[in-house]
Amino acid sequence: MVGKCLKTLAILGWVIFFASCSQMQKETLLDKNWGRSYETAKYNQILNPDASKNLKPAVDLDGQAANNNVEKYRDSFKEKGGQETVNILKLQ
Question: Can you tell me the distance from the alpha carbon of 58 to that of 22, in angstroms, rounded to the nearest whole number?
């Protein structure tokens, strides 16, 4: 009787142990990069502490290229004609 109880408790202990191990969450991408933005900003300020004295605008895309990108982005949200709604259950 005592032996059966001990076996049952041992099995129950192992089940609880493995169940708790399976519930552990893996490190997510957000966890891996937590604080990266802050550290990057801090590093850039240390690298060039006089950057705030440069008042020239950042030059990247010209106006026409930027406008085309914005239009493509806006067009991606418009409904596309000719798409049929599919009803899996075919209810009538």
Answer: 50
